[in-house]
Model the fold of this input.
Amino acid sequence: MVTWQNAYLKVGLVGGAMPPSKQDLGLERQNVTPSPGLHGLKYKGPPELAPDLNPSLQTHPDSAEPAAQIPMKLMALQLLLWQSALWTVQATASNLPQSFLPKSFEQVRKIQADVTVMQEMLCATHKLCHPEELLLLSHSLGIPRAPLTSCSSWTDCLRKLHSGLFLYQGLLQALAGISPQLAPTLEMLKLDITDFATNIWQQMEDLGMAPAVQATHSPMPTFTSAFQRRAGGVLVASNLKSFLEQAHRALRFLSNL
Done:
């Protein structure tokens, strides 16, 4: 058999050259700890052909994490997050007194009854029976509303409830002097809304979610005539009635958490 060394020897005898040694080919064995995959050989050849000598960059089959374990870990993380959120809701609900929701429902019904009396008196005494007929006047008077279309948590619901009640406290104060016949009903309505707002604020403080400083009333509408004040009373009563319906739904949402 003709090997490359025999062939090279034959050519070398003609040219006067000796066959290359392992040192010339860059395959000299070194007295070092063998690297994985290099079989203990140290490369001394051209740099552009040098193998990667950094064993930390070599991919070891045992170190690769099975792809099937990744979705399982993600599912476990999501479960932990869900359990944490559920525990927070349960802890918040457990910190509230059991009388809070029944008392709140009762306060809503009482205020709704006051609003109904006010609307009936405005209709019977001043012939102002249809709030929709006064919508244009509502814009010109600048009467704000406090929508409570939805809430997603105890914190969100309680803050929106208190903010809306705080707004209607200011609006009812602006209606002072609306008429002698309505004065007692207006005062009763103001007291009931104040009680409800105080109840909500107390729960916010107990749960540690109350603002450090209570908000101040934004500028309230100014009524320049008796008609404007009575029309404003009709509009405020209508808006307040709608707010109370939304408050009742919000309380039902909280009772199901």
In short: Helices lie at 4-15, 69-95, 100-126, 135-141, 154-174, 183-206, 226-255. The mean pLDDT is 75. The chain is about 60% helix and 0% strand.
